[in-house]
Amino acid sequence: MKIDEISSPELRGGQNDLHSQLCSQIESSIKDIEKHVPGTALPDSFSTDLRCSISQLNSLSPYPNSVKLHIWKLSYRLWNACVDLSNAAGFKTSGHKIDEEHAKLRQVSADLLFLASDVSGIPSPAIKSASFFYKTGLIWHDLRKFEHANYCFEKATDLLSKVEISTISENEEKRFLLDLNIARSRTAWEVSDRNLAVALLSRSKSMLFAVAENYKALANQYLTFGKAILSKNEASGVNEALRLMNDALELCERGLTVVKRTEDTLALKELRSKTLRFLAVVHLQRDEFESVLKCVKVLRDGEKDQHPSLSVLAMKAWLGLRRFGEAEKELRGMVVDKGIPEGVWVSAVESYFQVVGAAGAATVKGVFLGLLGRCHVSAGAAIRVVSKVLGDPAGAGEETRLRAKVVSDLVSDDRILTLLSGEDTSRERTAMHALLWNCAAEHFRSKDFQTSAEIFEKSLLYNPSDIESRNLRAKGFRVLCLCYMGLSQLDRAQEYINEAEKLEPNIASTFLKFKIYLQKNECDGAISQLQAMPSRLDFTTEFLSLAAHEAIVCRCHPVTVASLSLLLNFYPTGKQMPTTEVVVFRTLVTTLSQGPQNDSDILKQMKRAHTRLSELGADKFFGKGEIGRRERNWFSVNAWNSGVKTGQEDQHALSAEFFRLASEFYGASIDEEKEGNHVMVCKSLIMTVSAIISDERQRKSTLLENKVKEAISLLDRAGKMLRSSSTEYDKLEAIIEPNLLFMYTWCAFDLYSRLDDTGSQQLLLIKRFANSKCCNPNHLLQIGIDASQGPRSNHEVATFALSTCLSILLASSSPDYESVALILRKLICLRSIHGADSNDDATMETYKQAYRIMVGLREGEYPVEEAKWLAMTAWNRAAIPVRMGNVDEAKRWMSMGLELAKKVPGMQTYRSCMEDFVAGL
Predict the structure, then answer these.
(1) Continuous segment of H or E residues that includes residue 238
(2) Which GO BP terms sit in this record (predicted)?
(3) pTM for this predicted structure
(4) What is the b/e burial string over 333-368, where b = at least 16 CB atoms within 10 angstroms of the residue's CB?
(5) Could you give the CA distance from residue 623 to residue 319 in angstroms, rounded to a whole number?
(6) What is the Cα–Cα distance from 89 to 497, expressed in whole angstroms?
(7) Rounded mean pLDDT of 86-108?
(8) Which one of 64, 184, 236, 375 is CB 3.0 to 4.6 Å from 153, fit for a cystine?
């Protein structure tokens, strides 16, 4: 018997209520989605809430059919809402991809429909549910979230596996089976699971249902995979590409046998021709030149309009068979045939050059000159042919480099040089120089420095060596220097830049020499070039800024610091600068922070920045508005962090300087601010004084009186900033952390103790701290202990702090009796030291308070040793009255000691002796 069959009606009714509640939650979320404004980002809370509800709903399965129908409607409603949002946002028409959050909602809709995929009363529920997963998978695939896409496609496949194909009659549903398999195959291909991708395509062959369009779709996918493998130029993938294209060709042939409409026939024939052309390319890569020619023959026999690539394929095949006559015939045919695009002809020439060039450069030059002869050789014709052979130098790859290599050999040939050397060809010579220069520049931009250098060197052949052209030659030498720097041939680059400097000494040459020294890691040489830059006539401060960037990239910190420091010298002169002074300071401090043990240098530069801040004002130094506030905050925070860092490293003198700078930076007002960072100024001042005191203790020295007064003035400054209608402590308590308030109090207490006639100020300070809301008993305990010992002790402060701390501890629900015992001992000692005769009653009251505290405590809860100390010292205090004959006073102390001893475990023997002595007294 099933569990739900033996469960009570109340439980089943409760489960139905849960179903309704969860469905209501889902419906509420869907309503929010329907109200969402199209075109705005979808919050992730939609999918998260829906996913949570579905998870809870899933745990309550199985469901009644009525619930399944409700879930079914909710899923379609969510799906339609997503469709409306995507349509309204124009995803399809604008070409934008659906965002990930939208895809998550589609996924939720599919998962929701899956919960009710076995609902009764709806035709083909499994196919409909599978279609949701399929469409969602397509979206994930477009977003390149292939794991999610694969999950959806597998879910759809599982659903369809339960449907008998023989029961499917609709063409759309049949095509759906094929599309799902193809989509799943594409996703497997994207995650490099080629075996599964091809297996899924093979499985799809049983889903064609004698429909021509299906044959075309599957064949096209085979062809797409084949082309993808072919585009990678992998030798191991050529065989696989061939198999895939053969499968595509076979499907086209089979499709043509079942085709019924003329347009279907044309489409399949076009795909068949395209497949044959790519098959020819595959055979060409496999060096199967006979097969290439067979493909070309079939295509030429079957096509009315010959594709331009056929002549190229045929020529390459004849070249592969070493039958240069037929290859030349194909090449000549392309030149004569006006229907062949010029780009195809140039591609064929490149291929011809590539093969013939293997025999030697002389053969390449001969062929090229032969072509020039057919073009009526002239200077202009040579320029046009060289331009066509070069093609688009912006394209990267081996073919582009090959074109440049051929052109490099050709333009350096004596016959070409002679052709362009006459006085009447100066225009063409300039054009050739520009052509070669632009080609080399494109290779330089694509970082092919070897080819770029070779072409730049050849361009110098077409640059006159007269005086008027010396600047252009110097420019060529500088560019060649850049090329060889890119090739890391720094010595050769230095030779070129030296030649350029001889022709045209300027800032560019100095800067390139700087870069060479920098790349050689010769810091001294780089710095010397930096120092030489301002002496150049065309010097601008931008070069120092660039030098700093170069040094930062090379991680050469000494050069970076030198360049930035030199750049800072120009700001007071009023020159036009490449960037703001504050940015240079920030970069310099950041660079110094990356090196070890640079705290002193950082402090020096921060002080330098503060000096400029004082000279210019906050608005001019930092900038106005939000930018200025960010810059100020950066310096403030870095000064604060440096103070913390040096403090943690026990460099308290530096720490104090950094914190003082932080207070100055935080206090700078931007854009007429009425209130600055007063809180951080206050904190920085407190930390400054704390660091001064820590430095004093570290050096084991004593602050001079003027230093003490200076420290007190810093604390007074912090207090003055915070004074308002409320008291200073109230204000402090409201805005700074308890630890900093304690630090403020402790530092002030310590400094006041060094001056005469400040005892009352100390007591007032501690009383105010004790009355604050953030007063911590541990802080009072520390103050009390500090005030009770040392040469500058203050028993009044100590007594007040310890008494107040004791009151706070005893008011706690679980007092720390270790601290309570320590405080009681300290109070008794204080009262014994300061006026024993007059404070006997107060001392007795402390003992009584201790006794009252111990009453009701568990054994051992009050520290045993401290309890013994209380009992023994109370008993011993009776010794003097006994000697003096003051029996009543002696009995009072003995009774106190005896009462305390009764609360201490392990003092039974002592208690017996005490009781006997008291009885005999």
Answers:
(1) helix 238-258
(2) meiotic cell cycle; regulation of synaptonemal complex assembly
(3) 0.54
(4) ebeeeeebeeebbbbbbbbbbbbbbeeeeeebbebb
(5) 70
(6) 57
(7) 72
(8) 184
